[in-house]
Amino acid sequence: MFLRKLTLVNFRNYPEAELNLDPFANAFTGGNGEGKTNLLDAVHYLSMCKSYFNPIDAQSIRFGEDFFMIQGSFELNQNTENIHCGIKRNQKKVFKRNQKEYDRLADHIGLLPVVMVSPTDTSLITEGSEERRKFLDSIISQYDKLYLDDLILYSRVLTQRNAILKQAAQSRTFEQEAISPWDLQLIRLAEKIHFVRKKFIAELIPIFQHYYSFISGAKENVEVHYESQLNAGDFAVLLEKSIGKDRALQYTSVGIHKDDLAFHIHGVPVKRFASQGQQKSFLIALKLAQFDFIRNIKGIKPILLLDDIFDKLDDLRVARLMELVSKDNFGQLLISDTHPERIRKIFEDIGRSIRCFSVESGTVKADENSIAEKI
Amino acid sequence: MAEFSRLPGIGKRTALRLVLHLLKTAPEEPEKLGNALVRLRKEIRYCSICHNITERETCAICSNPRRDDAVICVVEDIRDVIAIENTNQYNGKYHVLGGIISPMDGIGPSDLAIDSLLVRLKEHPVRELIMALSATMEGDTTAFFIFKKIAALSLPDIRFSTIARGVSVGDELEYADEVTLGRSILHRVPYENSIPK
Predict the structure, then answer these.
(1) N vs C: which end of chain A shows fewer Cβ within 10 Å?
(2) Best of A108, A151, A159, A160 to disrupt the B interface by mutation (most B CBs within 10 Å)?
(3) Span(s) in chain A for CATH 3.40.50.300
(4) ipTM of the prediction
């Protein structure tokens, strides 16, 4: 699967742009703020129906305009898939596949998978547990729709249960009878979600470790642990034990909504003890593991979007990474870099061609020599 | 106009259209409507047994001797009674809860006609109780709450059942939504149960 052609209208700093992409490797080069990342994000939009960076669609409309449009012509199993994304201020977002509009965006997500690696991924390490649960859930939901449904139901039951706790505190009357039917639903859903997460992480860990040791080249020992209150035992017992605390707090203090992932390097937390470069390698390995997972489940190689990955990595790690992602088990690559010479040199060294585009304040031009090479 | 727009589903524009329409029609038309509205609250009330709507003390279904007394179908509201009646497949009685448990909307068990159901069952034991509630988290929780309450009464030989859920009749599998289809596979039924009767 690859993106053949990308067309933008009024998207962020692009009034209009049209690019013909290489099925293998593409680089967008230019200075800061010229619009390299926006091109990667446009591809993310076409795949996931939303920006990787900004949850508010209207903020991606070019300043002073009232709509934006992204179109992509993909090649999927020898068929052309034309995807259209249109967003108009104060209107519903429109997604079309081959001129036919989707009723639900969820039906589109997963058709053309992408994996984005970006400097903002550090939030996975530095931010709270919610970021890490989101990371887990977004991967699992791509192949298990029942899991997604269970998650939605779980959060609904949780809201209902918390409403009971709040009302009980206000009225100073508490009936176990009113809360127990919700507990039963909560337990059933939490156990299912816990089981799926545990299984997923167990499968993810070896893939992740493989990629990390490849990038780092050294024998750095990295680990990912799934931390859940449910690991310790019966959730029903936990809920029962914490009811006094829950009533005082007026919300539910135990459950899979408190799950977390612990990242370790040589037995100590990555957040506090790893260098910037190690953290970056850690995140890239995690994203590549995600890539592997999606590819194995869907049987399609996702498009890999690498945003500004050369920052903070030493040359050896960069070279290893590029060597890895240009191998056969990876698909189309879209890379952004501030130095046109660097990326060209790296690909020359590994003996692969790359199509380069220069990006300058909302215009994008294919570098002639890189196209000439292809012909 | 202000009165019309207080009704559900009617905004200012529709209200204006209704008023202008009534002004145009023959003078007896608005009067008929007005009388009907007055009679609505005077003559129609809730059935003292099942909380369905009726013009008498008990509704046409509860007072019909040909309907099976020993089966009660528990539904959320009157629209559900009408929907099930339209299928012509059910010959038992009903019990209308008047809503569904949802703490976040401030609806608890005491806001629903659950106690009257318990009283009804104690006075006239039944053979089967059918839960026909929405296939939502709230519907399931309400059903479970009622089930627990009734189980605590330890009535003899009562059977609980719930309406089947899954792929719609006449639907092709490829068009069924993934979640429904996934659950239909998980909760598959023995083939004998699915042979058309």
Answers:
(1) C
(2) A160
(3) 1-113+300-375
(4) 0.73
